[in-house]
Structure prediction request, 267 residues.
Amino acid sequence: MDVRRTPPAAHLETIRIVLIEPRALVGLGIRGAIDNEPDMQVVAEVRSADDALAAIEGQAPDVFIIDVELLEPAASASTRRLTQESPGSGIVVVGREDDDASILEAIEIGATGHVSASAEPSELVAVIRRVAEGEDPLRDEVIARPDLVDRIMEGFRDSFRRADEPPSIPLTPRELAILRHVAGGLRNREVGALLDVSEQTIKNHLSSILHKLGVPNRTHAVTYAVRQGWLTLDETDVGAVASPADEATPPVSAISSGGGASSGGEG
Prediction:
């Protein structure tokens, strides 16, 4: 996959970097390597792609450094949204010890740089600099590895073979059942009573659902599930789920309002 982006201006003095690393100690080590470089600056260090989206509003960085763990299925939706909303930023993925697996994951999200977890600080710095200059060191790495090219091609062939298969559902059976009740217009409290669990348990499940699907609120979650074929229209109460109040409710309110209509998340 040939992913190209517009190189920054030649007079760029400082490479602005957003570091997305869920582990504080690992982030400390990466930041230490970058802080030694006079032409690089970590403008934000966050723990998730969602946090990064909030941090970059109005001013995208030159480079994102992303931990490969954030490419796992539970977090990949948010990471992909990050690449869509900041297309001019380069991406460097810090992989695992198993380079081949993390390289393939980096390619899937459109990264142009990759270093393994065991790389020397100087290697990370060199890759960041090349990506900031509009180069694609990840492509060069893949081209130099015919075995990786074969694995990528096999992955494409496999995806074509499975194109007619229904997509796998990232939600657990319990989460899907809760989403089905939410689609029917039930409030958190009512869903909890129906399933004989606490309202807080329902809120926790909804939080997990929003995170897995990479959507901002329960209305979008139901819409996404219907589009994917996980829920059918006859299972939904469109008026209850897609009300203007629900559409305007931010994620926290969307999952925590199970009581009154005044909060807008369950009305």
